[in-house]
Write a structure and sequence with these properties.
Radius of gyration: 23 Å
Helix content: 40-55%
Length: 445
C-alpha cells in the first residue's frame, strides 16, 4: 500500500522582508509541520521589490515557490495567486499579509476546487482588522492570531464568529538560545533594544529620554540598538550626544541567526518601549538566552498574561522614560534581581513560547480548519478590481489584463506594498482601535 497523502497548506507571503519576525516564524513553522501530518509550502510573491532569490537564500529549508505577476496590476496579482492554487491544489491557503489571496481563493472555489482560506494575523492594526471584517463573510474560513488580545479583537472588532478564531503564539528555539555562551558583566549595565526603527508602534524616540533619565541618576550603562527602519536617520541625530560618547551604538539589522551570539550573549537587559505588540518575539528570544526584560506595559501584554511584574520582568507605563530608567537603575545595582527575572523568563518561554509549542498550536489550528464547514460566499459578491488605467476602462479589467500580458506591459510600483499590497482597507481609525484594544487588554484573562 502507498503511504497516505498528507494534506497541504500553502502560505502566501511577501519576500521583501527576509529579516522580519514573520519570516523567522515561517522558517521554523513550515518544515516542522510535516511531523504533525501536514505538508507545508511557501508561496513567495515576486517582483521588483520582492526578491524571491534573496529570501530563499536566507531560508533554504523552505519548500518555496515563486508567484509571479507579469503585469503588476491588481487583476494580475489575483490571477497569479489563482494560477498557483490551481497548479498546487493545496487543502488550505494561509494569507500572510497578501490581501489578494482571498479574491484568488474565491475565484478557484467558483470553479469547483475545494480549498480552505485562513488569515494569519500578526498585528493589532486597524487596516488588517478591516480586511478581516470584510473578508469574514465572503469565504474566509478562519483567522489564526498570535496573541490573545488579537483573538478578542477578531471577534469584537471584526465580527468573526468565535469558533473561527484560533490562537497560535510565536515560538523560539529554546535550546539554541539557551546554549549561548554569555559573557559576564564587568562594568556598565549592558542594555539592548531590538526591533524595527519606527515610532508609532515601537516608540523608538523614547530612547533619548530614557538615556537622559539614566544619566541624571548616574547609572553606568551602554545601549546597543539593533535594527533598521524609517526612523534610523532621525534617531541617529537625536542620539548623537550618546553615540559620540560611546554610551549608545546603532549597529543596524542583523540576521536572526546572529542575534543570540552577537547580541543576547553580551546583554544584561532587553528594553522594550512599544505601544503595542503581539509578542514580541524578541522578548521570548532574550528570555530564552537568559537576559532580563524591562518593558513598557504595551497593549497586547494584558490578556496574554506572559510578562508578570517583578516575577519575570519589570514593567513601566508606555512613554514613561523616568520609570523605565528607574527600573534599569534597579537592575544595574541588583545582580540577584537580574538573575531571578532571567530564570523566570527562561521557564516562561520553555513552557509557552518554544518552537515546539508554536508548531503544535498551528498544527491543531490547521486540523480544526479542515474540520470546519467551508464558508461560501454568494456568487454575486465578487467584483473585478477597480480600473487601473485607460486600458481597463476601454476593454474591461479582464480583457485588459489579457492584452497587457500579450504586449508585455507592466505597472511600475514605488515600493513593496504597492507591488503586493498587505491590505485593501481604506484608512481606518487606528487611535480608536488602540483605545478599544487597551480597554479589552485591561480585563482579567
Amino acid at each position: 500500500m502507498s503511504p497516505p497523502t498528507l494534506p497541504t497548506v500553502l502560505f502566501v507571503t511577501p519576500s521583501a522582508y527576509p529579516l522580519g519576525g514573520v519570516a523567522v516564524w515561517l522558517d521554523y513553522l513550515a518544515p516542522a509541520l510535516f511531523a504533525h501530518g501536514w505538508r507545508a509550502k511557501v508561496g513567495l510573491v515576486a517582483g521588483r521589490w520582492h526578491d524571491v532569490g534573496a529570501y530563499g537564500a536566507a531560508y533554504p529549508g523552505l519548500e518555496a515557490l515563486a508567484i509571479e505577476n507579469p503585469t503588476g496590476s491588481a487583476e494580475g496579482r489575483i490571477r497569479a495567486i489563482a494560477d498557483t492554487l490551481r497548479r498546487e491544489r493545496p487543502d488550505v491557503v494561509v494569507a500572510v499579509n497578501i490581501v489578494d489571496t482571498y479574491a484568488a481563493v474565491r475565484r478557484v472555489r467558483r470553479e469547483g476546487q475545494p480549498i480552505k482560506a485562513v488569515m494569519a494575523l500578526h498585528g493589532i492594526a486597524a487596516d488588517l482588522l478591516g480586511d478581516l471584517r470584510r473578508e469574514a463573510p465572503l469565504g474566509l474560513d478562519a483567522v489564526v492570531a498570535t496573541n490573545h488580545l488579537a483573538c478578542r479583537l477578531c471577534v469584537e472588532h471584526a465580527g468573526v464568529p468565535p469558533k473561527r478564531v484560533l490562537y497560535a503564539p510565536y515560538g523560539v528555539d529554546v535550546d539554541a538560545f539557551g546554549a549561548v555562551q554569555r559573557t559576564a558583566r564587568e562594568g556598565p549595565l549592558r542594555i539592548v533594544w531590538v526591533g524595527r526603527l519606527e515610532q508609532d508602534q515601537k516608540r523608538v524616540h523614547d530612547l533619548s529620554a530614557i538615556l537622559a533619565a539614566l544619566d541624571a541618576r548616574g547609572v553606568d550603562y551602554r545601549l546597543r540598538i539593533v535594527g533598521d527602519g524609517p526612523e534610523r536617520s532621525a534617531l541617529s541625530a537625536v542620539l548623537a550626544p550618546w553615540l559620540e560618547r560611546g554610551r549608545a551604538e546603532l549597529i543596524g539589522a542583523l540576521p536572526p541567526a546572529a542575534l543570540a551570539a552577537k547580541v543576547y550573549a553580551h546583554a544584561d537587559v532587553l528594553l522594550i518601549t512599544s505601544s503595542w505588540e503581539t509578542g514580541p518575539i524578541v522578548a521570548w528570544e532574550a528570555m530564552a538566552a537568559g537576559v532580563a526584560v524591562v518593558s513598557s506595559r504595551y497593549v497586547g501584554r494584558g490578556l496574554e498574561g506572559a510578562l508578570r511584574e517583578g516575577h519575570n520582568s519589570l514593567l513601566f507605563p508606555i512613554g514613561s522614560a523616568d520609570e523605565a530608567a528607574e527600573m534599569l537603575a534597579q537592575l544595574a545595582a541588583d545582580e540577584a534581581l537580574r538573575t531571578r527575572l532571567a530564570d523566570a523568563g527562561r521557564a516562561l518561554v520553555r513552557e509557552r513560547y518554544s518552537v515546539a509549542a508554536s508548531v503544535r498550536s498551528w498544527a491543531q489550528a490547521l486540523d480544526a480548519v479542515m474540520a470546519m464547514p467551508t464558508v461560501d460566499a454568494r456568487p454575486d459578491v465578487e467584483r473585478w478590481p477597480a480600473a487601473a488605467g485607460r486600458l481597463d476602462r476601454w476593454l474591461g479589467v479582464g480583457r485588459a489584463e489579457t492584452v497587457r500580458r500579450m504586449l508585455g506591459r507592466r505597472h511600475v510600483h514605488a515600493g513593496p506594498g504597492g507591488e503586493w499590497p498587505h491590505t485593501a482597507s481604506e484608512i481606518e481609525d487606528e487611535p480608536r482601535l488602540l483605545r478599544h484594544a487597551a480597554q479589552l487588554d485591561a480585563e482579567q484573562p
